[in-house]
Amino acid sequence: MYAERASRLTGAVVWTNTPAGTGARPVLPDGCMDLLWTEGRLLVAGPDTRAHVPDGPPRAWAGIRFFPGTAPALLGVPAHELRDRRVELADLWPASRVGRLRDRIEAAPDAATALEEIALDRSAWAAVPDPLLRRLVECLDEGRPVAGTADELELGARQLHRRCLGAFGYGPKTLARILRLQRALALARSGLPYAETAVRAGYADQPHLAREVRDLAGRPLGRLLGGGR
Predict the structure, then answer these.
(1) What is the dihedral of CA 152, 154, 158, 164, to 10 degrees?
(2) Cβ contacts of residue 138 below 8 Å, gap of 6+?
(3) 88 three-class SS
(4) CATH 3.90.870.10 corresponds to the domain 131-225
(5) pTM for this one?
(6) Which of 109, 162, 172, 218 is deepest in the core (most CB within 10 A)?
């Protein structure tokens, strides 16, 4: 069973996921990075460009999902180095520091809240996320074109691409595709017909939506949502 709540860290989400069957559901690209806890392990989920299916037997997870583009400043690692990867936090930070964090989580009554506290502590002295990149996410999430958004932000194409690699793990066009996918999924889950979902999310038509869902999520939209529409 999956549950989430808004974090006290601006834009972040605290979540838990406990096994509710034998099959693991795919984790879809969303523009975000997560700090994860499972079975005594601290990991970082890098930015995905395709669906990620957890390996091994079902297990309980806790995590904090950072607003797109903000995790690299907290972790001290460019996002593109973690693209499509799950990495032990001890591979990024000193093992002694990670050991203390692990002990802190194990002693806490709630692992997800402990992760949130760690992220809040880290944010108190980490570099402030670039507000320009937050505006980029907002514009692309509204379905605005990349070129027009770059002009509004007064960034050249190369500069924008370079900054996106460090913050999101990929270029602005990939970020726009992923945010559009998330818009479409939200609309489809609300019960909107797929053809109308495609138009409102910014796709040319329903076949375009279907191709993008297969490419980014690895399965048809109906199967992804657990229905037959």
Answers:
(1) -70
(2) none
(3) strand
(4) no
(5) 0.93
(6) 172
Q: How many CB atoms lie within 10 A of CB 1?
A: 9
Nearest-10 Cα torsion for 108, 113, 115, 118 = -90
Give the pLDDT confidence of 117-161 residue by residue, as tens digits. 999 999 998 988 889 999 999 999 999 999 999 999 999 999 999
pLDDT digits (tens, 9 = 90+) for 202-223: 999 999 999 999 999 999 988 8
Cβ–Cβ < 8 Å for 209, 194: yes
pLDDT over threshold 50, residue 167: yes
Any idea where the domains of the chain sit in the sequence?
2-123, 131-225
Question: How far is CA 227 from its chain centroid?
Answer: 24
What's residue 57's pLDDT?
A: 84
Secondary structure (3-state) at 204: coil
